[in-house]
Every structure is written in structure tokens, then in C-alpha cells.
Prior knowledge:
293 residues; mainly alpha; MetI-like fold; two-stranded antiparallel sheet; 71% helix; 1% strand
Amino acid sequence: MFAACADPASLGDAMWFACFLTTGKHLNFYAAFGVVLLLLAITAPAALALGFGGAVLARTRGPLGWIGKGYIAIVRGVPDIAFFLFFVIALDQGLEYLRHLMVCPATDGPVYQGNDFVVCPAAKVPLSTSPQWVHEAYGFGLAVVTFSIVFGAFAANVLFGAMQAVPRAQMETAEAYGMTRGQAFRRVLVPQMWVYALPGLSNLWMVLIKASPLLFLLGVEDIVYWARDLGGSKTPQFTDYPHGDWRMWYFLFLLVFYLAFTKLSEAVLSRLMRRLTHGQATSGGEAQRRAEA
């Protein structure tokens, strides 16, 4: 904050807004954009890895196939908000219960006491004495795990369909040339399935971007939290920068941010699609060959 901001009442309009937009809360608001981008950067590859594993399991026969198909069906069948609220609480309490059994085995009484979940103080995750950044990192970690599991199921469904779309004749030809099933899977099926999977994964990436405000429901102070807090009416009794209800302007700024980010994503994904379809026996590859002829 500028030195001139010490007395907001004496500032002109331009300087007042400059000081207002550089308060500590606004700096947290700007940092929250980094939190959202970090969530997307971690969740996207994690969900893709889970999705690939789920798709591979779903292609197998027997119990492993049931696990893969069950993961896809169950997670996709539960509303995102319900899963987010239930799973985070269940995971948090599960970790504390396991820690309770390890560090406080002699504690009398059950952990479930009516509607309350009570563990010994030493079993809290994180500990109540931990620094604030530890609590924030823990909440962010729970959010990453939850997002990855949810969107991993959708990615698994997309990748499973893409694997099925690769012509079976190519796999049979690879095996006829002496490749094992594993070699044919790695060298023939996996490289080609991305052409069929990318449209679905592109849509899933867009949905993931739009779902990032769910961080607010998980207790993470994201951009939606700060926009609502900063945009709400402020009176002189509670702040040096009183103002009316400005939430519309803050949420309009978020709208512009998300539209710009999705537009950038579309450009990158379109270029990636052109690269993947080059030389492929698909409509996109055929269109490229006609354009180059």
C-alpha cells in the first residue's frame, strides 16, 4: 500500500481507488487467482492419470474390470456438490480416526458422540497448534484429491470410449506381426486413442475450469470468496474504505477472467487437435491432407 494511503478520507477519487485496490484483502484476492490456476495445474494431470487407470481397468475382465466400471459409474452418478461435501468430510474424519487409533488408543468413549465427531487433540489433522499455512495447505490438498477423483471418473469414461474407437483390426495386425498384447496396447492403441479422446477431454477441461469456484464450498478462500467479501457493502464503522454493494462489479471481473481463460484454452486445444490429427485416418486428418494438396 502507498504511504499516502494512511488517511483515506483525505484522498481524491483516483488515489482512493488505488489505495483501495492495494489493501491486504485485495492482495489476497489477487493471490487467489494463483490458487485457482495451481488447482487446475495439479488436478488436470492427476485426473487424467486416474482416468487412464480407470479406463484400463474397465477394459479388463473379471474383478478388475468391475472396479474400473464401478468407479466410473458411481462417481459420475453422484451430483458433484453432494460428492464434494460428503467425500471431503468422510476423508477428513477418516484420516483423523486412523490417527486417533495410532496416537490415542487408550482414550475412553467412541469417536461418534451423537452428532459430534470427537477425537483426542493429538489426533487432529492438522493439529490445532499448526501454523495457518498448514491448515490452508491441508484444505487445498483435500480439494485437489476430491477434484481429481470426480473428474478422473469422467476422464476414464472418455478414454474408455476412445480406446474402443481405435479399429480392432489394427490391434490384430500388430499381434500378427509378433507384438504382445501389452506392446500393441502401448505402441498402437494408446498413441491413436488421443485423437478420439481429445474432444471429450477438451470439454472436460472446460467443465473443470467452471467447477473451480466449488473451492468456496470446501472452505478454501478462492476468488469467489474474496469477491463476495470485498464486494459486499462496507460502512465506516468496519473499514477505512466504505462503499456500497459492489459485488456485481467483482463478479463481472470474474466473468471476464473465466471467459478469457476458456478462450485461451480453446486456442491451445485446437492447435493440439490439429497436431494430433495430422496424418491420421480421421475426418480432421483428411481435411488437413486436402488443404495441403
